[in-house]
Amino acid sequence: MPTTPEMSMDMTTSGDTGLLDTLQHEVAVFARRAEQTRLGGVGQVRNSMDRAAYLLLNRLDKEGPMGVKALAASMGIDSSTVTRQVAPLVDTGLVKRTSHPEDGRAVVLQLSPRGQARLDEVRSSRRELMAMLTEDWEPAEREQFCTLLTRFNSALSARQAGQSTPGAEGDPAS
């Protein structure tokens, strides 16, 4: 996208609405396109896993087995939302419910072998899509985009959590 001198001004400059208007518009377009395609990858795997399922499986893969409350807290969402979203993952065998090793009354959620295989398949497909979409980018451009998008998501997450400044890097929902 071409930039004008007006657009490249420091965003903190009083009265600079051009760059901020462009930013908010591009974020809105990105959100719409991401939702339409669900950035689901390529081939048969394309659009085969919804965002909530992907994020839950990804979190369980990265952090290991955990209870509903811990999973909800790590994702920055309500426990009832996690319970509702994880139910179909348990029903389809992607997530297993097991008893907590120290407290048999508590339930622990963990990625099943089938869930791990499915997550690996979807990740591979999405990775291929990201490679295709950025094939004409330099490696440094990909890295910068990832850095800025992570920073942007952190700021959104901090704002949603009621903080005045962004917290730790990375989106809790990722």
Helix content: 55-70%
Helix/strand-derived category reads: mainly alpha
Q: State Rg.
A: 19 Å
Total strands: 2
Which sequence of strands runs across the widest sheet? 1-2
Gap between N and C termini: 28 Å
Task: Name the beta content range.
Answer: 5-15%
Write up what this structure looks like.
- Helix 2 (51-63) crosses helix 5 (113-133) and helix 3 packs across helix 4 (79-91).
- By secondary structure, the chain is mainly alpha-helical.
- Strand 1 (95-99) and strand 2 (107-111) form a beta hairpin.
- The protein has a two-stranded antiparallel ribbon with strand order 1-2.
- It is built from six helices and two strands.
List keywords for this structure.
174 residues; mainly alpha; two-stranded antiparallel sheet; 6 helices
The gist of it:
With 174 residues, the chain is mainly alpha-helical.
Summarize the helices and strands and which ones pair or pack.
Elements (H helix, E strand, L loop, with lengths): L17 H20 L13 H13 L4 H8 L3 H13 L3 E5 L7 E5 L1 H21 L5 H22 L14
Helix pairs in contact: 2-5, 3-4
